[in-house]
From TrEMBL:
Name used for this protein in its record: Molybdate transport system ATP-binding protein
A Pfam family it matches: TOBE
Record organism: Litoreibacter halocynthiae
Cellular-component GO terms for this entry: membrane
InterPro entries found in the cross-reference section: AAA+_ATPase (IPR003593), ABC_transporter-like_ATP-bd (IPR003439), ABC_transporter-like_CS (IPR017871), Mo/tungstate-bd_C_term_dom (IPR008995), ModC_ABC_ATP-bd (IPR011868), Molybdenum_import_ModC (IPR050334), Mop_domain (IPR004606), P-loop_NTPase (IPR027417)
Domain of life: Bacteria
Statement: the UniProt record of this protein carries the keyword Cell membrane: yes
Length: 370
């Protein structure tokens, strides 16, 4: 279901002037604290009324200042998941999920919602006996029981520690793979966004700095300044060739060769995404020999983007995927890098964090092993 948002709104001293379209799926709103992500979510939910513009979900107009349409929040069929689970402490999980809608619990159970979220065994417990991750999964189930037309998630992992986040993400991935309703996912963590999103909206100072298909935007060197030099990096589609290579690594097949990366919790044959940060890629014109790095992928330079500082972003094609390297302007000059040049990308195994591996890969592609 396509989504179209175009809103201007003054909130105290803050001016929101945001416009983007998305084809549905998971749309991530990404940007630093205070850039206006929650304000957009609130406008979609109808919790605030923009000064001008429109919000459209498919052919349903939720807000249009020109025609005076403003559908009140309770008629929008929105599922909202906040940073904190906000469960009722005096009610069991089952009661929390079915709260106000006794029949809906069974529909969530019926379509596998509870199983996907891994909470079937928690139904009799009370919120005080749940971990932060479990409570948040219950909160998602509760949001789904109203059979919403859109799911809004405002930093749902923010209150969890890193270990719980890693544990939680596969549930979220399974859920978004299963649901056909559009999901808006607010985050300032690119690792989460890279695993979950189909479409990325990068916000800055109340405006949309970039909007586009996630993989395309993350491999666009011109977008680095908006995404942040530390966060920038392309997504490789990989297939797990050997999840447990017995030395603590997994062997992952890409269309250009094998990668040895920290062990993934997945079955052999699983398609997934791996985010390779641009600053973790070293380039070599010749195939390196006698190097400690295990991962060497043949590439072709597609574009070199010079920014303001001493670094340049080099866009690369690696088999069917895009990669990006951030190197110094000096190195690029010394190497004589130009578009079309063949080279090798070197990626240290330990530089890829477990949180950068996962998410829905492209299932149809057959990875070739060299
Ligand atoms: N009702 C309001 N009145 C005045 N200012 C507001 C109001 N709502 C939001 N703001 C301001 O608008 C700006 C954007 O807030 P918003 O919560 O949308 O940012 P955000 O990107 O979601 O931030 P965070 O990641 O910290 O949650 C902030 O400066 C905030 O103080």
């Amino acid at each position: 279901m396509s989504v179209s948002v175009q809103i201007t709104q003054r909130l105290g001293d803050f001016a929101l002037d945001a416009s983007f379209e998305s084809e549905g799926g998971v749309t991530a709103l990404f940007g630093p604290s205070g850039c206006g992500k929650t304000s957009i979510i609130n406008a979609i939910a109808g919790l605030s009324r923009p000064d001008a513009g429109h919000v459209r979900l498919g052919d349903q107009v939720l807000f249009n200042s020109a025609t005076g349409v403003f559908v009140p929040p309770h008629k929008r069929r929105i599922g909202y998941v906040f940073q904190e689970p906000r469960l009722f402490p005096h009610m069991s999980v089952a009661q929390n999920i079915g709260y106000g809608r006794p029949n809906q619990l069974y529909s969530t159970r019926g379509d596998g919602g509870l199983a996907v979220l891994g909470i079937e065994h928690l139904l009799e417990r009370y919120p005080r006996d749940l971990s932060g991750g479990e409570a948040q999964r219950v909160a998602i189930a509760r949001a789904l029981t109203s059979q919403p037309k859109v799911l809004l998630m405002d930093e749902p992992l923010a209150a969890l520690d890193d270990a719980r986040k890693t544990e939680f993400l596969p549930y979220l991935q399974a859920l978004v793979a299963k649901t056909s309703i559009p999901v808006f996912y607010v985050s300032h963590a690119m690792s989460e966004v890279a695993q979950l999103a189909d479409h990325l909206v990068v916000m800055r100072d109340g405006r949309v700095a970039r909007s586009g298909a996630l993989a395309q935007l993350l491999s666009d060197p011109a977008a680095i300044s908006d995404i942040g030099v530390r966060e920038a990096g392309a997504i490789l589609n990989v297939t797990v060739a050997q999840a447990d290579a017995s030395d603590g690594l997994s062997v992952l097949a890409t269309s250009a060769g094998r990668l040895f990366l920290p062990k993934v919790q997945a079955e052999d044959g699983t398609a997934m995404r791996v985010r390779i940060r641009a600053s973790d890629v070293i380039l070599s014109k010749d195939k390196p020999d006698g190097l400690s790095a295990l991962n060497i992928l043949p590439c072709k330079v597609t574009q070199i983007h010079e920014g303001q500082g001493p670094g340049v972003a080099v866009a690369l094609r690696s088999g069917e995927d895009a990669l990006m390297a951030r190197i110094t302007r000096r190195s690029a000059r010394t190497m004589g890098l130009t578009a079309g040049l063949s080279c090798y990308a070197v990626i240290k195994s330990v530089s890829v964090a477990p949180t950068d591996m996962g998410g829905r890969g492209t299932e149809s592609r057959v990875a070739q092993m060299p």
